[in-house]
User: Fold Threonylcarbamoyl-AMP synthase from Paenibacillus donghaensis.
Amino acid sequence: QGEELSARQRAEDTAAIAEAAALLRAGGTVAFPTETVYGLGADARNTAAVEMVFAAKGRPSDNPLIVHVAGVAALDDLVSEVHETAAALMAAYWPGPLTLVLPARPGVLSPRVTAGLDTVGVRMPDHPVALALLKAAGCPVAAPSANRSGRPSPTLASHVQDDLAGYIGGVLDGGAAGVGLESTVVQVQPDGTVAVLRPGGITAEQLAAVAGVAAVDLSPAAALEFASPSSAGEALPGPAAGGAIAAEAGSPGAARAAGDGSPAPRAPGMKYTHYAPRGWLGVVRGASAQRVAEAAAERLQAAQQRGESTGLLLFEEHRGLYPAGTAACVVSLGSLGAPEEAARSLYAALRRFDDAGATYILAEACPVTGLGAAIMNRLMKAAGGSVIDAD
Ligand code: TXA
Ligand code: MG
Assistant:
């Protein structure tokens, strides 16, 4: 890429936003902050630009990108139909962490954005820098999370730099992302059912408040949430041990149904091992925090004895349940009573284990209500389905 934004432009700087918008219009790539995580943007109509996004991320080509818009009006050009329930969800939660999968208007977006599907995922982010950039660019902006495929999503501009420096046109630095986990991806069925393809910043409870409790179908996401790697689809790569970028192993055609009768993932991205730290990660769950702590401490001690560098991801309330020195690197997600704080800090926590060189990491499970559903979804995917039952 010829034009280079100087690294980590300060986002409040309107000149930096104008420069970034010009870069997008010229077919370049720019990472920018959103309220969920940082995205890597490109003009969604420009196939060459979109291909640079896939290349920079090392992303499998069968995984479609979310298109970001500055307002509902932009949908007229992009989609052919909006179900009334979809419209109601947008009215309630845009701008915000909600992506709607809608029927794409043919011939507008690069086919690389939709990965050949006849639908497109669209969202309006709730972040002043993202909105200013989208307005200035004046085009639909395809933007996956700005991480190398398989790595935890970036919640700071420095995470983007760590993963993608040299591969992208630049980064607008807007500080720490507020939500910390990606948007909720939904698809409204013709009968008004809201299929949750990926849990995220908008909770099932919030969807139900608009669409009705009976209309919210969590099964597409839940089918994958606790799926073991072998049941989640033939293309699911092995454990991310050894620093492999797991999702690079994805192959075209991987969206087919698994041979074992489990449903084909409807958000294609959900089938890949994602968000993974470099070390081995397991999620520990059980009937009581005491049981979980005992099971985790025992395994961490054994791991330490065989020479592993250990990590422990816990909730603040449980710190005292672990003997001193249980793990070399202990990271707290904050209080169990404040899941928004856990969401905000989860990806940075996973990256901290990498910085510490952790090779064996255990994470406490949390209840799957509210934002906890998205937190557990990401933890389970980071763990590649490895669960330790403490009971
Ligand atoms: O919060 C977010 O959504 C962030 C920020 C940057 O906006 N973006 C993000 O994009 O997480 P990405 O590409 O990492 O994840 C997009 C997810 C994938 O699971 C993908 O399979 C799904 O959305 N998706 C996109 N288009 C789809 C479509 N037409 N049908 C079904 N799933 C789709
Ligand atoms: Mg992503």
About this structure: The CA atoms of residues 238 and 246 lie 7 Å apart.
